[in-house]
Amino acid sequence: MNKFRILSVFFLGITVGVTVLLFLGIISRNNFVKLSQAAALPTPPVLCPHCGFGSDLGNRLTGVDLKNAYLTSFSSSGNDFTGTNFKKATLNNASSNSDNFTGAKFINASIVHGQIVDDNFTGADFTGAIMTNWPSSGNNDFTNANFTNADLTGSDFVAGGGNVFTGAIWSNTTCPDGTNSDSDGNTCSGHGTP
Q1: E strands along 34-111, which residues?
Q2: What is the residue-level pLDDT of the chain in tens, covering all 194 positions?
Q3: Which residues contact 97 (CB under 8 A, 6 or more apart)?
Q4: Could you count the other beta carbons within 10 Å of the beta carbon of residue 117?
Q5: Contact criterion met (CB below 8 Å) for 177 and 191
Q6: CA 98 to chain centre
Q7: 107 CB contacts (<8 Å, ≥6 apart)?
Q8: What is the bridge-based pairing of β-strands 52-53 and 75-77?
Q9: Which one-letter DSSP state was computed for residue 82?
Q10: Are residues 107 and 124 in contact, defined by beta-carbon separation less than 8 angstroms?
Q11: Can you give the C-alpha Rg of the chain in angstroms?
Q12: Distance CA 50, CA 165 (A)
């Protein structure tokens, strides 16, 4: 019983000592994060393959930071993603219907084989996004969307389906037919899949 008390006191002493050192910032000299910096640590990426978001989600993901998220084969219908950050996210095989992505950021995101219908992408930023092999998707609004440096090779959504591209930015964009928007009069309109 005496040995148990000694061990208990020993471990209690170590715990108290480490706690004091953390508060004093001494442990940070050994490459541990100071407590004051802990809140600034990046959040781990969201991993949710095959997630389904029904319309009951509403606006709970409005403006949320989903940078580096892994959301392959996710599906959504009737939700509000206004201003949501999908920078460097993997959204391959995603399916979306009647969602609002106004001002959303898809910078350097991978959205291969996306299927979209009746979505609003007004002012969305697809700079550097890989958006290859999208099947024909209809009635989407890409007004003022930015496709700078995006790769749209093999995607049918540019060619038709009632999609709106008024004021869209086409700069060094790889069009669906493999040509460059800079050589096509700064647009990919009329340069759908061959």
Answers
A1: 52-53, 75-77, 95-97
A2: 565 566 555 555 555 555 544 444 444 444 444 444 444 444 556 777 667 777 767 678 899 998 998 888 889 999 999 999 999 999 999 999 999 999 999 999 999 988 899 999 999 999 999 999 988 778 999 999 999 999 999 988 877 678 899 999 999 999 999 999 999 999 988 887 65
A3: 76, 77, 78, 116, 117, 118, 119
A4: 18
A5: yes
A6: 18
A7: 87, 88, 125, 126, 127, 128, 129
A8: parallel
A9: T
A10: no
A11: 24
A12: 29
* C-alpha dist (Å) from residue 48 to 69, 88, 89, 118, 182: 8, 15, 11, 24, 37
Which strands, in side-by-side order, build the sheet including 95-97?
Answer: 52-53, 75-77, 95-97, 115-117
Residue in this structure with the two tokens 């029904």, named with its chain if needed: 54
Count CB atoms within 10 A of the CB of residue 25.
Answer: 13
Pairing of strands 95-97, 115-117: parallel
Is the CB of residue 165 less than 8 Å from the CB of residue 143? yes
3-state class of 152 per DSSP? coil
Structure-block tokens of residue 73: 């084969």
Q: How long is the chain?
A: 194
* CB proximity list for 178: less than 8 A, separation 6 or greater: 153, 194
Please, what's the largest Cα pairwise distance for the chain? Answer: 87
Q: Where are the alpha helices (DSSP H) in the chain?
A: 2-24
